[in-house]
């Protein structure tokens, strides 16, 4: 590559802190701009990362002609309009998981991607772990035989994020399945060669969260507004 691709990141709290090291370590990219509607945290992140191009309006970052890639780390509900706007502006896009809260929104993103000719990637990083790559290589050689059944499960982390937006449905669009279930589901389908679903069923419940006095090791008694 003859030049570094310029990156602008939108949504600087929470998961963005996991993105900063990757962009800095890559010889192919340079993180040049940050965007967030919260001016205080935006200023702090800018100072931490040594970045002076700071945008309180994400559209201004997207329309910056210097930027080649837009990295979207906002709450889930904001993914769709930002992804589409960035693609329409001629940018490549990396978007945090889940890509969107509904299949219809994802279809809109795919249409915008196809029209733009740019790349759209969701941050399903489990595929890139050493364990996952090793198991995938074993499966692809056929040494394990035909994989016809899989049972996957995942438990939540034991530490507390600073701003738990994923616990508020109006921001996340769903519960644990949309938050961490997408990781293990993507990994399972990838391992098995993306078989086409014939039927899908599921059950969800939030009895523990709604039980009076429910306790979290993160924050003590669960706030009523969390769903």
Short note summarizing the structure:
The protein is α/β, with parallel strands linked by helices and 227 residues long.
List the helices and strands and how they pair.
Layout: E1 5-10, H1 16-25, E2 29-35, H2 39-49, E3 53-55, H3 58-62, E4 69-72, H4 79-88, E5 92-95, H5 103-116, E6 120-122, H6 130-141, H7 169-172, H8 176-191, H9 207-210, E7 215-216, E8 220-221
Parallel strand pairs: 1-2, 1-4, 2-3, 4-5, 5-6
Antiparallel strand pairs: 7-8
Helix pairs in contact: 4-5
What does this structure look like?
This protein is an alpha/beta fold. The protein folds into two domains: 5-123, 3-Layer(aba) Sandwich (Rossmann fold), CATH 3.40.50.720; 129-221, no CATH class. 38% of the residues lie in helices and 14% in strands. The protein is built from nine helices and eight strands. It has a six-stranded parallel sheet, sandwiched between helices. Strands 7-8 form a two-stranded antiparallel ribbon. The mean pLDDT is 87.
Global structural class? alpha/beta
- Number of structural units classed as domains: 2
Largest sheet: 6 strands, parallel
Strand content: 5-15%
> What is the average of the pLDDT values?
87
Shape: globular
Rg (CA only): 19 Å
CATH level 3 topology of the largest domain: Rossmann fold
Write the H/E string, N to C.
Answer: EHEHEHEHEHEHHHHEE
**Overall strand count:** 8
């Amino acid at each position: 590559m003859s030049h570094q691709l310029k990156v602008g990141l939108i949504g600087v709290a929470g998961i963005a802190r996991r993105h900063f090291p990757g962009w800095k370590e890559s010889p192919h990219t340079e993180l040049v701009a940050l965007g967030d509607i919260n001016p205080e945290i935006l200023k702090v992140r800018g100072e931490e990362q040594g970045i002076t191009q700071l945008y309180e309006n994400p559209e201004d970052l997207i329309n910056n002609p210097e930027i080649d890639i837009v990295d979207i780390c906002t709450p889930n509900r904001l993914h769709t309009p930002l992804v589409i706007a960035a693609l329409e502006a001629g940018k490549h896009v990396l978007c945090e998981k889940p890509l969107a809260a509904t299949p219809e929104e994802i279809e809109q993103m795919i249409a915008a991607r196809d029209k733009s000719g740019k790349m759209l990637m969701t941050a399903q990083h489990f595929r890139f772990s050493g364990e996952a790559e090793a198991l995938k290589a074993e499966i692809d050689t056929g040494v394990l035989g035909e994989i016809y059944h899989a049972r996957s499960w995942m438990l939540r982390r034991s530490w507390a994020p600073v701003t738990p937006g994923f616990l508020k449905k109006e921001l996340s669009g769903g519960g644990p399945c949309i938050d961490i279930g997408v990781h293990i589901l993507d990994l399972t389908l990838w391992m098995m060669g993306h078989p086409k679903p014939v039927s899908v069923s599921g059950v969800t419940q939030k009895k523990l969260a709604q039980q009076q006095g429910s306790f979290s090791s993160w924050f003590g008694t669960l706030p009523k507004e969390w769903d």
